[in-house]
């Protein structure tokens, strides 16, 4: 059951991020990613043949927590390369 939740939640979160609905929606998509990572970490380490998924999702959990911080907690908008004036982006 955990692996199916992880797969479904990750797919939903990826869809929300891809729709580019704004900071708040993207932040909540990262919250969904966090829950999916937790589910897949648990599932991965409960099944000896799936430890790789567990380790991968530990890394993804850290990345997703950065996304939650960046989009929901951080007060100022982070600078993006396309927001910088007078500088070219390559």
Number of helices: 3
Order of helices and strands: HHH
The tally of strands reads: 0
The portion of residues assigned to helices is over 70%
Rg, rounded, reads 16 Å
What kind of sheet is the major sheet?
A: none
Compact overview of the structure:
By secondary structure, the chain is mainly alpha-helical.
Task: Write a structural description.
- There is one protein chain.
- The chain is mainly alpha-helical and 90 residues long.
- It has one domain.
- 71% of the residues lie in helices and 0% in strands.
- The protein contains three helices and no strands.
- The longest helix has 24 residues, at 23-46.
- It is elongated, with a radius of gyration of 16 Å.
- The chain starts with a helix and ends in a 17-residue tail after the last helix.
Task: Describe the secondary structure blueprint for this structure.
Elements: H1 2-18, H2 23-46, H3 51-73
List keywords for this structure.
90 residues; mainly alpha; 3 helices; elongated
């Amino acid at each position: 059951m955990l692996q199916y939740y992880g797969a479904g939640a990750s797919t939903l979160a990826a869809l929300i991020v891809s729709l580019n609905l704004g900071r708040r929606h993207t932040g909540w998509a990262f919250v969904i990613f966090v829950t999916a990572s937790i589910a897949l970490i648990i599932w991965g380490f409960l099944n000896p043949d799936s430890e790789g998924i567990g380790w991968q999702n530990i890394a993804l959990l850290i990345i997703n927590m950065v996304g939650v911080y960046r989009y929901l907690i951080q007060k100022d908008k982070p600078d993006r390369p396309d927001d910088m004036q007078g500088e070219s982006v390559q």
